[in-house]
Amino acid sequence: MGRIAPSVQTAPSVRLAELGDANDVAGLLGHLGYPCTRDEAFERIITLQDDPRHYLLLAEIDGHACGLIASHTRYSLTHGTDLTRITALVVAPSCHRQGIGRQLLREVERRARRDGVSRIEVTSNVSRLDAHEFYRRCGYSDGSVKFVKTLGD
């Protein structure tokens, strides 16, 4: 996909991802560093569609996928209320700096407010310095440090 300059006709739109979007979801996850096949993406979409507390949203310009965001809302014992966690956000490299990431973020925020959520969290790999600056520019502040342990045999 080449760089698409938004205009009145090509302004990005955001919608829920559907099973037919599996190729696009797989490609976008690959851009994020989490490659998967179309079939794996298909299964992931099914899993998220079955849970009303998950959103998988796709951004499109003229019918071409250019970004995605996934979020999950859960109850937080420490905050005593629901919170939404963004679990993936990616914009195709050819579509960077067109406001698509910000639009996806704002749509998750809109849905969270509608669902009565007052806090959103997002984690980002320590090496993704550009992403950290993006989140700060969008009003997010640095928070907790995340620790990870991979379980396996």
TrEMBL record:
State one Pfam family annotation.
Acetyltransf_1
Q: Does the keyword Acyltransferase apply?
A: yes
Entry's Gene Ontology molecular function annotations: acyltransferase activity, transferring groups other than amino-acyl groups
> Which UniProt keywords are listed?
Acyltransferase, Transferase
User: Where does the source fall among the domains of life?
Assistant: Bacteria
Which residue intervals define the domain N-acetyltransferase in the entry? 12-153
Name used for this protein in its record: PhnO protein
What PANTHER family does its record include?
AMINOALKYLPHOSPHONATE N-ACETYLTRANSFERASE-RELATED, AMINOALKYLPHOSPHONATE N-ACETYLTRANSFERASE-RELATED-RELATED
Record's PROSITE patterns?
GNAT
